[in-house]
TrEMBL record:
SUPFAM superfamilies: ParB/Sulfiredoxin (SSF110849)
Organism: marine metagenome
Record-linked InterPro entries: ParB/Sulfiredoxin_sf
Name of protein: Uncharacterized protein
Length: 237
């Protein structure tokens, strides 16, 4: 791997590589403020086409302040190397991974494009959208997501659940909380759970809902509301 460190103020020769994460304004502002106090050169990494592989925020900060930009040209890097280098500086978020892989997809039916649409449309956390669409939880599902191997298992089933979840919004504003979504999704898998019945009950007894810190407690609350006014109480285990 060939490496050469150079310095320039010709910012226009640089561009962003497709698939890298978007600029985080808050992070950029922190770097700008730090550089205004004291500028310690830290080279960005570019490829032979002057596409920025690592150091997007440092580049933007130098450009904004008119500071000399130090850069190191390297060969042989791919997007996996870019993500690894970025994580050392600032951990990638779910949104970063979604943006990165989505930008590489050529159609609107790509899994990361669908995931991005899904979480925006239904206003749910990224992690929950991932779990609902992939019908999987845990470390394995997360590793596949980060590796670009995320797959949509059953879009019709996922959107059906999300539409049901969205109908809860008028009666329970915390419907977006991860613990609540985990709880209601688990109960929804029970054949005895009827969505229409629950929506009717929560509409009448929304005041009986309460905030919880975990899914198990939410399941108890949901069960209580579900059984309000019913002679035949159902125990969801």
């Amino acid at each position: 791997m060939k490496k050469t460190i150079k310095v320039t103020k010709n910012y226009e020769q640089f561009s962003y590589i497709k698939g890298n994460r978007i600029i985080n304004t808050n992070h950029l502002n922190k770097i700008v403020k730090s550089m205004e106090g004291k500028y310690v050169p830290n080279p960005i990494i570019v490829n032979g086409n002057y596409e920025i592989l690592d150091g997007q925020h440092r580049f933007e900060a130098c450009k904004e302040l008119g500071l000399p930009l130090y850069y190191m040209m390297t060969d042989g890097w791919n997007l996996d190397d870019v993500r690894t280098a970025n994580i050392i500086v600032r951990k990638w978020s779910y949104a970063d991974y979604i943006y990165s892989y989505k930008s590489l997809e050529k159609t609107d039916t790509g899994p990361y494009t669908i995931l991005d649409w899904f979480i925006r449309k239904y206003e749910i956390p990224n992690e929950c959208g991932l779990q609902i669409l992939s019908n999987a939880v845990g470390r394995t599902a997360l590793e596949k997501f980060k590796a670009g191997k995320f797959e949509v298992q059953n879009l019709q089933k996922a959107t059906s659940f999300a539409n049901f979840l969205f109908k809860i919004k008028p009666y329970w504003q915390s419907y977006r909380k991860r613990a609540f979504i985990t709880a209601i999704r688990s109960m929804d898998e029970d054949a005895r759970f009827n969505r229409t019945t629950f929506l009717e009950r929560i509409a009448r007894h929304s005041m009986k809902m309460r905030e919880c810190t975990n899914a198990l407690d939410y399941m108890d609350v949901i069960e209580y509301v579900y059984n309000c006014g019913s002679r035949d109480k159902i125990r969801f285990d």
